[in-house]
Amino acid sequence: MTLPPLVEPAADLSVDEIRRYSRHLIIPDVAMDGQKRLKNAKVLVIGAGGLGSPALMYLAAAGVGTLGIVDFDVVDESNLQRQIIHGVSDIDTPKAESAQRSVAEINPYVQVVLHQERLDSSNALEVLAPYDLIIDGTDNFATRYLVNDACVLLGKPYVWGSIYRFDGQASVFWAEHGPCYRCLYPDPPPPGMVPSCAEGGVLGVLCASIGSIQVNEAIKLIDGIGEPLLGELMVYDALDMEYRKIKVRKDPECAICGKNPTVTELIDYEEFCGTVSDAAVQAAAGSTITASELAAMQKDGKDFLLVDVREPAEFEIVSIPGATLIPKGDIPAHLSELPQDKPIVLYCKTGIRSAEALATLKGAGFASATHVQGGVTAWANQVDKSLPVY
Ligand code: ZN
Fold first, then answer.
1. What percent of the chain has pLDDT over 70?
2. What residue ranges define each of the domains in the chain, with the CATH number in brackets?
3. CA 29 / ligand 1 centre spacing (Å)
4. Distance (Å, rounded) from C-alpha 264 to C-alpha 251?
5. Poorest-confidence range of 83-87, 121-125, 191-195, 254-258?
6. Distance in Å, CA 259 to ligand 1 centroid
7. 208: CA distance to ligand 1 center in Å?
């Protein structure tokens, strides 16, 4: 199914623009008309991170006339392994501003609009409204549902991508012509079940594979060429080097784009998705210690078992001295080996997974178990600053 062009063509291209875009202009399916449509297009990219970096750079190079960038984060050294729109001199500066500098360097004919604020249900409709198409490069579920719902309510196409380790996915959601994100994923995963890239890692170059698919789909929609990735989920496996397409159907029962929608306005997406499960919140209440308190327990020679619930690769990067590694998923199988006669202290990278593991221990009768707020990251920031933070 080919759709009509999303954007009307601009009046003309300057001589400089004709020179710059000559390799596009000689493609019959793009040509002058298609390039003028790109010039007139307004694309919003959410997140100037892993997917947003290649997406913004190629959208700019392609001559998309207006690029909106939503990001309120600053550039960190650990971003540079994949977020190629930023460089060493951008560390500690806002990502949106760093991305704007790179876009200007690639193509000065692009107008950049910065949105340096957290997108939420109070501002999303207003931020998205002026744009023709939305590209999502974020990796949290609350933002995905928020952007999906805002796009459905505004009738805009939503070009989505997701990455983790060696696996990537991409699709185009557009309720007027096919399914939306909720048709594919009606419910968010239980909090703590799906690790983020910060917890599980991502191969840097995977961002280019998926980000370039998103730009490709955006260009096709703007110019009305080819078959959009609408009603199809592209699944990419970088280790097997395999691309597969899976059909996604519009769900007549979909909460927002179905026959009887129950979601008719934006909701509280943090609450909808949760960040920590109720069980973990309950387990951690009154059973949370700080990194400094843990250091004091060690200094005082207290007898306790310190358990690191992260994955072996993370343990290899940095750990708290004296810790025993039992990854969170292995804890149920190791319950019988844990001591009943002394306290158990759990930690992870930031305190989310250890709270989940704490709920498992409490449920198995280890009433005095605690976990470390902020995990090994807090330890490296507060107790031993010589340790790396990853
Ligand atoms: Zn739907």
1. 99
2. 15-273 (3.40.50.720), 278-382 (3.40.250.10)
3. 31
4. 16
5. 191-195
6. 10
7. 28
Spatial distance between the Cα atoms of 267 and 275, rounded to a whole number of angstroms: 16
Tokens of 69: 């960038």
Q: Which residues have a catalytic role annotated? A: 197, 348
Amino acid found at 355: A
Q: Which of 54, 16, 17 is nearest to 39 (CA)?
A: 17
State mean pLDDT over 52-58.
Answer: 98
Residue with tokens 């390039």: 35
Looking at the chain, the whole-number percentage of residues with pLDDT higher than 90 is: 90
Residues contacting residue 96 through CB under 8 Å, at least 6 positions apart: 48, 69, 70, 71, 72, 114, 115, 116
Residue with tokens 């973990």: 280
270 pLDDT above the threshold of 90: no
183 C-alpha to ligand 1 centroid (Å)? 4
User: Kind and range of the H or E element at 45?
Assistant: strand 42-46
Of 4, 5, 2, 22, nearest in space to 13 by CA: 22
Q: Is the pLDDT of residue 192 over 70?
A: no
Task: Encode pLDDT of 103-118 as tens digits.
Answer: 999 999 999 999 999 9
Q: How far, in Å, from the CA of 142 to the mean position of ligand 1? A: 16
How does pLDDT run across 338-390, given as a tens digit for each residue? 999 999 999 999 898 999 999 999 999 999 999 999 999 999 999 999 999 88
Residue pair 319/291 in contact (Cβ under 8 Å)? The answer is: no
Mean pLDDT for the stretch of residues 211-223? 98
Distance, in Å, from the CA atom of 371 to the CA atom of 390, rounded to the nearest integer, reads 20
d(CA 327, CA 218): 41
Ligand 1 centroid to residue 160 C-alpha, Å: 14
By C-alpha distance, which of 256, 52, 28 is closest to 135? Answer: 52
